[in-house]
Design goal:
It contains 7 helices and 9 strands. With 279 residues, it is of the alpha/beta class. It is globular and about 60 Å long. Bound molecules: 2-acetamido-2-deoxy-beta-D-glucopyranose (4 copies).
Length: 279
């Protein structure tokens, strides 16, 4: 499969539906002590300095992305491709990331069907856009099971289990969808066979593939005061007292996270506020 070679981490940056494609941190931010471990203090210092420099450049009466600020690619994230079609004509959008459930790509066993991906790819390409595929092994609706029916047998631990998504699941388990039983080695083999099949069929045409976030909550990532939040009511930018702007998001994403691509939710305010101008 020909994909971009960059490591892609899904970081829940904005709303639950918005992620950032992240490349590994610049080497100076790595301590080298443990592979991938970040020196938090150093990270925050460098990130703040780069962020401030970029902000200052932009504030000098130049509304376009300043010389010292790298501009990431802006993509649209949509759980369904049709939700993204209104954005296909915009010159400031590079591509569309969308979801495909396992069940839709393999059913019955060993019969793969990538026709929906092909259709969406053709629609994106006809407007000069790229397509990014998220293979979905979990759902957030109780009436939607992500796995093909043949997995609903004891060999596969029934293929999936109900999952609860919320803050009170231990005390009150209310199913809100299903998660694939990836802990079962037979399930994993079938899932890997799906990825292999994808590698052989829509080969080299899809810009990237990612799996759903595993949604663990950890404290390992150093938090900075700069981390932006789209919800202005709840969390305005402490530096300005206002809603974070697109430029502030991009600045943080590029200079603190090393991001090359931002996948924006279709509900992102700037998509309505700014006129598409190629940026
Ligand atoms: C704004 O910055 C860009 C990138 O550095 C530069 O090419 C452009 O000339 C600047 N525009 C103004 C009005 O200063
Ligand atoms: C297996 O999964 C199906 C579909 O989600 C569900 O209807 C059924 O109750 C499950 N069976 C068991 C034994 O959990
Ligand atoms: C933003 O915050 C308000 C106030 O807490 C909340 O009602 C609203 O649901 C939040 N919006 C989003 C998109 O999280
Ligand atoms: C953008 O405008 C459309 C049409 O007026 C509206 O339906 C949509 O909710 C708006 N989106 C945002 C994020 O404001």
């Amino acid at each position: 499969m020909v994909l971009t070679s960059r490591l892609v981490l899904a970081i829940s940056l904005l709303t639950p539906a918005t992620y950032a494609g992240v490349s590994p941190l610049d080497p100076p931010l790595n301590t080298g002590a443990l592979d991938g471990q970040v020196d938090a203090e150093r990270y925050i210092k460098i990130c703040h300095a780069k962020y401030d420099q970029c902000r200052d450049e932009m504030s000098h009466g130049n509304s376009s992305y300043a010389a010292g600020c790298r501009s990431p690619e802006n993509w649209i994230y949509a759980s369904d491709f049709s939700e993204a079609t209104p954005f296909l004509d915009r010159p400031d959008i590079v591509g569309i990331q969308t979801l495909y459930r396992w069940k839709e790509t393999e059913n019955p066993q060993n019969r793969y069907d990538f026709s929906e991906i092909r259709e969406n790819l053709a629609a994106a390409r006809s407007k000069g856009k790229k397509l990014w595929v998220q293979i979905q092994d979990r759902t957030f609706y109780v009436n939607s099971n992500p796995v093909p029916n043949y997995l609903h047998t004891p060999l596969y631990d029934n293929g999936s289990v109900p999952q609860c998504d919320g803050t009170n699941c231990e005390a009150d388990f209310q199913p809100s969808g299903y998660a694939v039983a990836q802990w079962n080695k037979h399930v994993r083999r079938r899932f890997q066979a799906l990825l292999n099949a994808m590698a052989n069929e829509p080969d080299g045409e899809i810009y990237g593939v990612n799996l759903a976030e595993t949604a663990i909550s950890v404290e390992a990532w150093p938090r900075t005061q700069l981390e932006p939040d789209l919800n202005a009511t709840e969390n305005p930018n402490p530096q300005t007292g206002k809603q974070f702007t697109k430029e502030e998001f991009q600045n943080y994403a590029v200079n603190c996270l090393g991001v090359n691509i931002i996948f924006w939710a279709t509900s992102t305010p700037w998509l309505n506020e700014t006129q598409p101008n190629g940026r």
